[in-house]
Amino acid sequence: MRSLVKRFLQTLSMKKHLRLKPFLPFILLVLFVTLACNFPIKVLFYTPKEKPTLDPAIFGQQGTPAIALQTPGSISSTASNTLVPYDANTSVSYVAQSGDTLDVVASHFGVTADQITSPQPIPALGIIPPGQQLILPKPAEAAPYPGKLLPDSAVINSPCGRDLDVADVVRQAGGYLNTYTQSVNNETLSGAQVVQLVANNTSVNPRFLLAFIEFRSKWFTQNPAEPNLRYPLSLNTPNYEGLYLELSLAAKMLNTGYYAWREGLMTELTFAGGGSVILSPELNAGTVGLQYLFSQLFSQGNFEIALYGENGFMTIYKNLFGDPGMCADKVEPLITADLQPPMLELPFTPGEVWALTGGLHVDWNTGTPAGALDFAPVTGEARCVVSRAWVLASASGVVTRTGNGVLQLALVDEKQQFTGWELLYMHVAERDRVAVGTHVQTNDPIGHPSCEGGAATGSHVHIARMYRGEWIGAGMPFPLVLSGWLAVPGDKPYQSTLVKGDKVVASRIDGMYNAQIVR
């Protein structure tokens, strides 16, 4: 693994001098582009028409996880809480949080990495132990909204979200949501099922989604005389009508802020109608995700009322679900310094020829990190048939979710204990797909690549990673390695390479030439 990481860094070394901050508008624009997954076809020499940014892959219902993911409760990689003195006239003290890296903290504070010091050694590339004290130059100006609102575990679908029986709480609340139904992908879903589906698809905490519904419509606890069925959350966005799409859109904006902060790509909020403020560098990703969502919906003055006011979102959230810190104290920090990526195999049979048709792109949908790859079998079959080739399990685990092309696998260790890592496979055909609750070993067949489950130009499989409910990108500190092949980010989404020794596989939508790979 160390040699692979070294090669990864050497490959990226010429790009590291670029500062991401000046390119933030472009980066966020790229985040809002959703492309179809790829299959070997003739290369397109024209620019396709723009599509709605909501990937059709989220339109189908998937089963809810049937197995509670028992993730580690004890944290061994946190630093001491003992703080050392510092000069408050010139410096500030910051305590590292879940997922912090040196480059990300530097981006948040607007400094260079070599301006950050600590009483303990600071990892140059990996996760800084949560709780470690960092000393940084004092910012020139104070941010206007420095208070943390929600812990990360209350925003993403962490163990603090997966314990919720959505149907039960919706029934007990007795609001309009309890009797609401909506057709999604030709299937009639209850209001609770809509919420659970969005939580599963986007990995956003269902408690957050329910609180947002209550804030925007009162549907959770009340029964309005004339409910707005077209735009129940009043987002009023074309192509996003009905509760399912509006809630998915809200989750998408929440994720955009969460992961842009996590990766050090966001330093300010721009409000609806204009105006911007800097983000407090000491915030956590969950709070920034929430602030970003509300900044997209409100002018600055209304933002403060809607989020911080007496009848604002945070008041509603706490009235419904109490203090989210109680669960956070049990499960956070979610990402610690000793976390290592799982050892994974390519998801197909050794000796078969497949193609890397989609380089690194978003794990699920707009706003999630670029940590997914697309592989298509080179079989000569028609473009969108259920392929005769098999998708194999890249690691051992338990199937926790299937349906509409999705298969989610919770990984286990040698003692069959859940590790917190999960793999998401998309476009796995219903035919021969393994059932929820099935225990699989590495290289066991789990289904066939297809076009099922959303936008696809042909039969293939999409694979992405998640840890304790958080989508994981493919760069440092958790490089994506499959059968010894290291995924190296490219300059654009879907365009990247796999590197193993002196071998290089480059993604191509047509699957030709050096896009082909044999395990």
Any overview of this molecule?
The structure is a single chain. With 519 residues, this protein is α+β, with helices and mostly antiparallel strands. The chain folds into 3 domains: 2-55 and 340-518, Distorted Sandwich (Glucose Permease (Domain IIA)), CATH 2.70.70; 91-137; 152-331, no CATH class. It is built from 13 helices and 21 strands. It has helices at 2-12, 24-31, 102-109, 152-155, 159-162, 166-173, 191-202, 206-217, 242-262, 285-297, 300-308, 313-321, 325-331, and strands spanning 91-95, 133-137, 181-184, 187-190, 268-270, 276-278, 353-362, 370-377, 391-392, 397-403, 406-412, 418-426, 439-440, 445-447, 461-467, 470-472, 481-482, 485-492, 495-500, 503-506, 516-518. Strands 7, 8, 10, 11, 12, 13, 15, 16 and 21 form a 9-stranded antiparallel beta sheet that branches. A 4-stranded antiparallel beta sheet has the order 17-18-19-20, covered by helices on one side. Strands 1-2 form a two-stranded antiparallel ribbon. Strand 18 (485-492) and strand 19 form a beta hairpin. Helix 8 (206-217) crosses helix 12 and helix 9 crosses helix 10 (285-297). The longest helix has 21 residues, at 242-262. The radius of gyration is 22 Å and the shape is globular.
Q: What would the principal axes of the Cα set say about the shape?
A: globular
The rounded Rg comes to 22 Å
Beta strand count: 21
Estimated structural class: alpha+beta
What is the helix tally? Answer: 13
Average pLDDT reading? 88
User: Biggest β-sheet: count, sense, barrel?
Assistant: 9 strands, antiparallel
Q: Count structural domains.
A: 3
Return residue spans where pLDDT drops below 50 for at least 5 consecutive residues: 4-36, 38-76
For CATH, the homologous superfamily of the largest domain is named as: Glucose Permease (Domain IIA)
CATH class of the largest domain, named Mainly Beta
**Helical amount among residues, as a percent range?**
10-25%
CATH topology assignment of the largest domain: Glucose Permease (Domain IIA)
The CATH architecture term of the largest domain is Distorted Sandwich
Strand percent estimate: 15-25%
Terminal CA distance? 18 Å
